[in-house]
Amino acid sequence: MRIAYLDCFSGISGDMLLGALVDAGVPLDTLAATAEALNLGARLEARKVLRGGLTGTKVDVLVPDSAPDSAATHSGAHTHSHSHTHTHTHDGETLTHEHTHAHSHTHSEAHDHARAPEHQHDRKQPHEHQNEHTHSREGMGDHIRTHEHNEHRSLSTIFGIIAAAPLSDVVKKNARRAFQLLGEAEAGIHSIPVERVHFHEVGAIDTIIDIVCAAAGAEHLAIDRWFASPLNVGSGTVVAAHGTLPVPAPATLSLLAGAPMYSAGPPLERVTPTGAAILRMLDVTYGTLPAMRTRSTGYGAGGRDTPGEPNLLRILVGEDGVGEGPATETTGGPGTEPIAILETVVDDSTPQLLAYVSEQLLQAGAWDVYRTPVQMKKGRSGVQITVLCHPDRLAALRDLLFRETTTIGVHWRIEHKLALPREFAEVATPWGPVRIKIARNAAGAVSNASPEYEDCRRIAEQHSIPLKQVMLEAIGAWSSRNSGETS
Predict the structure, then answer these.
(1) 265, CA 20 to 30 Å: which among 151, 181, 411, 457?
(2) In angstroms, what CA-CA distances link 167 with 35, 39, 45, 213?
């Protein structure tokens, strides 16, 4: 199973993840083509930078002045922060906008404009669409430029941009999910329907590209399961569209509900709403580094260089620790694969309910489900439900058990599964053909051969003969034809 681990020791933002993906081997051309497919007039640029003495890849979204939501930022030699306030008239109303920026730039006469972080990473957040608009634009240059009122995009508008792009269904689905989660988080914070949430900062071109390109990069790596470390979310405050907010910002905190987090280092915003939404989109499992064989690593850079504390996101890509290799207690040996085993015991469910739940589990992707009578405490009789599945289905099947049964506790474990290669052969019986399932060991010898139950049952019902007679006839026919092989 191919897995990836996000080491978020300095947090995560959209541009940091894109940098890590490129650094780990995702071609920049793949992400650039994704950005171009969105038809927003933006392009990507990647460069090597130093963060705390370590090298990482910085990916910038370059937006021409003529594009909507463009913000002027210059990539270059030095970093500084500034804030300014200016006014302009919109629909006959004078509006005041405060901007706080931290960015690096090199001055030139002709240039592209890319976002730079307002605090540490990208600072973008949706807000409720009202008559009064507060704007927090990032990456404004140190030069004079005409301010244009930024477009407020609804969730349906962003969905339309994604739907119109010539991208795979998987990329579109994941990108839509990320924006849906962002919208729901903001709606909950402001106690409004999600349909009334209009994206200002998160609706900016660079954030749409961050999320969609993250989905495309994940698809390119063909990761079966994502893992992440506990999150360093930072501390302090950050200036956004709604004013000065605590770190982590409310939208970020809502998106990270249940995720392990901590704060370390100088007071900075280290996990942005975009980064949190991408983590939810990838459906990561949090914890320490799992057993894995690393094939590639990458470092994605944030906007600021914090001396002695690398402002980087690290990604490790490889196979889980139970793939091909010498047999050990940890790996299980060649041909093995991981298997999740979920168990729960109930003593107050009806047979009808248990039968229904078993069917639902199988339909939801369980490999097998079985029920075992058990003796519980206080002399009560109960039923233990055991579910076998691929680890990828563990969370979904666990939730199904809680939803559909009366249990209040489920335990699980990951073990090794070794399945012998199987093949089918057809034999003739007096009543018609029957398939024989044949399993072979590693040396190629037949380990087992058995007639297919459904074939034998159909013949037994059609000809009104005992099922056991059909099965004996079928295995006898196969044995006669393959007398040199063991059954």
Answers:
(1) 181
(2) 10, 12, 20, 10
Residue 326 counted as domain residue: no
pTM for the whole thing? 0.56
Nearest-5° Cα angle at 320, 34 to 57? 40
Do the Cβ atoms of 3 and 295 come closer than 8 Å? no
Measure the CA–CA gap between 364 and 218, rounded to whole angstroms. 24
How far apart, in whole angstroms, are the C-alpha atoms of residue 316 and residue 289?
Answer: 9
- Asked if 76 and 167 sit in the same domain, the reply is yes
Same domain, 201 and 97: yes
Q: How far apart are CA 468 and CA 452, in angstroms?
A: 12
Instruction: Please check whether residue 275 is in contact with residue 20, taking contact to mean a CB–CB distance below 8 angstroms.
Output: no
CATH number for the domain including 456?
A: 3.10.20.300
Residues 268 and 355 in one domain: no
Of 318, 351, 375, which residue sits at a domain end?
318
Q: pLDDT value at position 485? A: 59
Average pLDDT, the chain: 79
The string of DSSP codes covering 180-230 is HHHHHHHHHHHTS-GGGEEESSTTSHHHHHHHHHHHHHHHHHT-SEEEEPP
Report pLDDT digits (tens) over 318-376. Answer: 988 654 444 444 445 556 778 899 999 999 889 999 999 999 999 999 999 999 999 98
In 447-482, which positions are buried (b, 16+ CB within 10 angstroms) versus exposed (e)?
bebebbeebbeebbeeeeeeeeebbebbbebbeeeb
Residue span of the structural domain in which 228 resides: 2-318
Do 228 and 246 have their domain in common?
Answer: yes
Distance CA 271, CA 278 (A): 11
Residues 360 and 254 reside in one and the same domain: no
Q: Are 274 and 202 in contact (CB under 8 A)?
A: yes
| Same domain assignment for residues 270 and 365 | no
**Assigned token pair, 298:** 């990458």
Q: Are the beta carbons of 269 and 306 closer than 8 angstroms?
A: no
CB 161 within 8 A of CB 205: no
465 domain-assigned? yes
| E strand or H helix that includes residue 158 | helix 155-164
In a domain, 387, yes or no: yes
